[in-house]
Design goal:
The complex is a heterodimer of chains A (114) and B (111). Chain A has 114 residues and is mostly beta strands. Helix content of chain A is 0%, strand content 48%. In chain A, strand 9 and strand 10 form a beta hairpin. Chain B is mostly beta strands. Chain B is 0% helix and 52% strand. The model of chain B has no long low-confidence stretch (mean pLDDT 93). Classes of the chains: A mainly beta (114), B mainly beta (111).
């Protein structure tokens, strides 16, 4: 596809359940970012991948959150034992290189924990 | 620590009026600065960016922004707003390896 694709677009889950959010970056983009956007807030950094490795995971809020990118393309954000406070839009972005290259964002996954 | 402040949560303008959205940043070195726009149901789209050189940068959709180091500001401007410009606007600064966003300014445009 032409852009960054995130699936599902919406996810409703019960408190305590496990969820996986998927990001398909633009083909050939080595850098991949996950952000979380709560209502009325700007995107908040979660984790950054360069290739297969997590170069910076300082934004993950706690050990319930984990992300992988095993082949350096698709990434999955995993949330265990979801809490109502995890409800937000989760955004994925990819870029061809560092921050001097444009980061392209997906439309996000809206996660609602009930 | 790097941070971005957007003092205006919500701005309303009439179509055809000029627009200025404020952005102040905190960053120790020369910053990379960005403006993104987010329309309902859409992803973030880059409007323009500043890395170095000319402090007045031109972007898409007729937007421009001016970097003022002395004021730690990177305000976004447009001479004449169109109804389709109604959206949420985010200013961002590049940290060591990630973008740090402000809380955004919601722009409403009246006909």
């Amino acid at each position: 596809g032409a852009g960054v694709s995130q699936t599902p677009s919406n996810k409703v889950t019960e408190k305590g359940k496990y969820v996986e959010l998927r990001c398909d970056p633009i083909s050939g983009h080595t850098a991949l970012y996950w952000y979380r956007q709560s209502l009325g807030q700007g995107p908040e950094f979660l984790i950054y991948f360069q290739g297969t490795g997590a170069a910076d995971d300082s934004g993950l809020p706690n050990d319930r959150f984990f992300a992988v990118r095993p082949e350096g393309s698709v990434s999955t954000l995993k949330i265990q034992r979801t809490e109502r406070g995890d409800s937000a839009v989760y955004l994925c972005a990819s870029s061809a290189g560092g921050l001097n290259t444009e980061a392209f964002f997906g439309q996000g996954t809206r996660l609602t924990v009930v | 620590a790097q941070s971005v402040t957007q003092p205006d949560i919500h701005i309303t303008v009439s179509e055809g009026a000029s627009l200025e959205l404020r952005c102040n940043y905190s960053y120790g070195a020369t910053p990379y600065l960005f403006w993104y726009v987010q329309s309902p149901g859409q992803g973030l789209q880059l409007l323009l960016k500043y890395f170095s050189g000319d402090t007045l940068v031109q972007g898409i959709k007729g937007f421009e922004a001016e970097f003022k180091r002395s004021q730690s500001s990177f305000n976004l401007r447009k001479p004449s707003v169109h109804w389709s410009d109604a959206a949420e606007y985010f200013c961002a600064v590049a940290g060591t390896d990630k973008l740090i966003f402000g809380t955004g300014t919601r722009l409403q445009v009246f006909p």
